[in-house]
Design brief:
The longest helix has 23 residues. Helix 8 packs parallel to helix 9. This protein starts with 7 loop residues before the first strand and ends in an 8-residue tail after the last helix. By secondary structure, it is of the alpha/beta class. Helix 5 links the parallel strand 7 and strand 8. The chain has a single domain, classed as TIM Barrel. It has an eight-stranded parallel β-barrel with strand order 1-2-3-4-7-8-9-12, surrounded by four helices.
């Protein structure tokens, strides 16, 4: 099984799959949404198998609802396990959120209450998921627009403790950190400071919009995955690389999907920063005169 390289990849979406297979672009790895391939056969799955022959692939889930109070969806888990066994991905990830209640599913990734009760519940569900799949997964921090008033801890402490208690890894979405920090008024650097770098298996970068459509200081930011990565998010990503070192980094773009060349250009920006980070770590701290 291949591992994700500490290089830049892109999210592979249906409009680009044939082009990727035909042109085989110079990209280190690809990520797909797991649920798009839960069918037992068909052209989409065959093309994913062909992609997997050429590139390391990461499976990124959006529907497991790890933070729900409902029982874990065994039907969903069985489909995910079948896909994992078929594709043998380099990584498997899900979101640290909830999206179902009472058997009803919502088309959103909703934030958890950062309480001890939620911490115990979601950590147990992640352990159960890992036991079922027979492998470690990554959990991703989501963007948020509301907060629970009785939170017992900040989000970053909750995320770090979930990783420790469940022995899972972290998919650190830098754009989501920036969006939530802007919306709620906390420090994105405080967030980074609390994250155990050894747990980070992947980083996500994406674009956001404002709630009015035009930049303004008072606007809410909305995580739309429909724009290029913003300059403030690039700056926060550089800070993350300085703290944690090079990590597999994905460009996500799910709405208003551009041409493949645009995605690859964004990935090259990330790759340049990754290369700079690696070079700085290899450069001797002090030069010695002969």
């Amino acid at each position: 099984m291949r591992k994700l390289p500490a290089q830049a990849g892109i999210g592979l979406r249906a409009p680009h799959t044939r082009e990727v297979l035909a042109s085989q672009p110079d990209i280190a790895w690809l990520e797909v949404h797991s649920e798009n391939y839960f069918i037992p056969g068909g052209e989409a799955l065959r093309m994913l198998e062909a992609v997997r022959e050429r590139y390391p692939v990461s499976l990124h889930g959006v529907g497991l609802s790890l933070g729900s109070s409902d029982p874990l969806n065994l039907g969903h888990l069985r489909k995910l396990k079948a896909l994992v066994e078929r594709i043998q991905p380099a990584a498997v990830s899900e979101h640290l959120c909830w999206s179902s209640i009472g058997g009803n599913f919502l088309n959103d990734l909703l934030p958890l209450p950062y309480s001890e009760e939620a911490l115990v519940s979601v950590s147990q569900r992640i352990r159960q998921t890992q036991d079922f799949l027979g492998r470690r997964i990554m959990v991703e921090n989501v963007s948020s627009y509301v907060r629970f008033s009785d939170a017992a801890m900040p989000e970053w402490e909750f995320l770090a403790e979930v990783a420790r208690r469940s022995d899972c890894d972290i998919l650190l979405d830098v754009n989501n950190i920036f969006v939530s920090a802007s919306n709620h008024g906390f420090s994105a650097l405080d967030y980074l400071s609390a994250i155990p770098g050894e747990r980070i298996g992947e980083i996500h970068l994406a674009g956001y919009e404002t709630d009015t459509g035009e930049p303004a200081d008072e606007d809410f930011l909305v995580d739309t995955h429909s724009r290029p990565v913003s300059e403030p998010v690039w700056a926060l990503y550089e800070e993350a690389l300085q703290r944690f070192g090079p990590k597999p980094t994905l460009i996500e773009w799910d709405n208003d999907i551009p041409t493949l060349s645009v995605l690859l250009a964004e990935a090259r920006k990330a790759q340049k920063l990754l290369a700079g980070c690696l070079a700085s770590r290899l450069t001797p701290k002090h030069a010695h005169a002969g």
